[in-house]
Amino acid sequence: MKATGDVTVVGAGPVGLLLATELALQGVRTTVLERLTTQADTIKAQMISGRTYQMLAMRGFGPAIDAASEAEAAGLAWRPTGATGHFAGLFKLDGLPLVMLTQQALERVLEARALELGVAIHRGVEVTSLDLGTDYVVGCDGGRSTVRKLAGFDFPGTDPTLTGYQAIVDLDGDLPRGWHQTPTGVYASGPLKGRIMTLEYDGPPTTREATRETLEASLRRVSGHDVRITAVHTATVWTDNTRQATTYRQGNVLLAGDAAHIHSPFGGQGLNLGLQDALNLGWKLATGDSSLIDTYTTERHPVAEHVLHNTMAQVALTRPDPHSRELYSLFRDLLDLPQVRDRVTAMVQGTDIRYDTGSEHPLAGTFVPGLDLSDGKGTSIALDGAEATVRPDGYISRITT
Ligand SMILES: Cc1cc2nc3c(=O)[nH]c(=O)nc-3n(C[C@H](O)[C@H](O)[C@H](O)COP(=O)(O)OP(=O)(O)OC[C@H]3O[C@@H](n4cnc5c(N)ncnc54)[C@H](O)[C@@H]3O)c2cc1C
Questions:
Q1: Ranges of CATH 3.30.70.2450 domains, the chain
Q2: Residue 362: is the preceding peptide bond cis (ω within 30°)?
Q3: Fold annotation for 163-238
Q4: Cα(13) to centroid of ligand 1, in Å?
């Protein structure tokens, strides 16, 4: 088997940076091209799931993530205790705890490791064309991926239906903390100091700009509270178009993260999905084994499909019309049933992922938490009187009894 040649990763977001560290760990010469000259400070994800944390800890990122999370604790208006995430704003999930960490802090941890491993990161370089030789290119360039468009990947799905804002602001007036459904939409406040989120279901955004005036008007409409926004520190407009590339590979071009799949941020799944794409792809791509690289699509595409489905369901559940409110009440009660709660928790946290390894054994294709695979290699472990072969991404590929 011939190892792969050089790899170019387009995009220094969290997924591109993690993929670059994965490739470098395997000895692949890796270059990252990023159009921004400095890291974007736009507010996006503020936490990672327990499973993603376990996977990053497997690679030795635990102490750096813990330290970054602790350093950011002072920026929290309150500290959610035992938070395990939500489904459609129903904070009833009961699984691995979330780790509070802004996307920017995570990117800094990943970038530091990438540089340590010798990855070349070129900022201020926008990719506008693809000149394909024999080396691999991975588009980690986000939801509006240029790589995806240039390489002609199909990206079918549904159009946007709602307008969401998320921002860090200075607020004059009282706003109850946490997540709230109202007759006109949804709003949330915290846990980051000054963080607000609003959601209105009357069509897609008409502009990508979130001004002080639009944010304040939306917050007042949805919350019904007489609040004033006096300053905006960072803001994003978001929506719920839901799409996925039909394949993650076309020849030497691959996609990972938001470039491969987009959906609403309900349940905080997008970042986790992308980071786990990177952990699935890196070691496979490093081998240069074409059929192994193809298993990246066969394993990850169905995982993203589930996330696309469940985020669409969450949009439907949170709509403010009377019929959706009834559906929401019914679903809220169903979540009190342990079986339903466990199923939904596993779905949102990705702890139900089981890759098809061709083995009937119930543990084959599942993730093994707690291993040290910081050298990027797989291992063998004793498991219930059998021997399990663990892949470099921590999933069991074979069990011999
Ligand atoms: C409001 C909001 C809230 C969110 N909340 C959560 C949450 O709580 N939990 C969660 O898990 N996820 C959340 N997400 C989703 C999460 O932010 C994304 O899934 C994540 O950013 C995807 O990472 P990525 O690396 O694939 O893409 P991105 O973060 O978009 O990074 C892509 C990078 O590629 C660069 N780039 C783009 N085009 C080019 C080009 N042509 N040439 C060179 N570089 C290029 C960009 O500048 C960017 O740096 C949220 C998203 C939003 C918008």
A1: 163-238
A2: no
A3: Alpha-Beta Plaits (3.30.70)
A4: 6
Stretch(es) of the chain classified as CATH 3.50.50.60? 7-157+242-318
Alpha helices in 62-211 (DSSP H): 62-72, 103-116, 146-151
Helices 290-318 and 338-349: angle between axes, nearest 10 degrees: 130
Q: What pLDDT is attached to residue 81?
A: 67
Q: Is the pLDDT of residue 79 over 80?
A: no
Pick the residue whose CA is nearest to atom 35 on ligand 1: 11
Measured over the CA atoms of residue 250, residue 254, residue 256 and residue 259, the dihedral's sign is: negative
3-state secondary structure of 90: strand
Q: Which residue CA neighbors atom 49 of ligand 1 most closely? A: 13
pLDDT at 2 over 70: no
Ligand 1 centroid to 126 CA: how many Å?
Answer: 16
The answer to whether the CB of 49 is under 6 A from ligand 1 is no
140 lines ligand 1 (CB under 6 A): yes
CATH fold for domain 7-157+242-318:
FAD/NAD(P)-binding domain (3.50.50)
CA dist 48 and 123 (Å) reads 25
**Cα separation of 216 and 192, whole Å?**
18
Nearest CA to ligand 1 atom 1: 44
Check: CB of residue 270 under 8 Å from CB of residue 238: no
Number of neighbours of residue 169 by Cβ within 10 angstroms: 23
**What's the whole-model pTM score?**
0.96
Distance of CA 364 to the CA centre of its chain: 25
Establish whether residue 104 lines the binding site of ligand 1, counting it when its CB lies within 6 angstroms of any ligand atom. Answer: no
**pLDDT tens string 218-252:** 999 999 999 999 999 999 999 999 999 999 999 99
How far, rounded to the nearest angstrom, does the alpha carbon of residue 283 sit from its chain's CA centroid?
A: 20
In this prediction, residues 370-390 reach a mean pLDDT of 95
Strand order in the sheet with 253-255: 120-123, 30-34, 7-10, 136-139, 253-255, 249-250
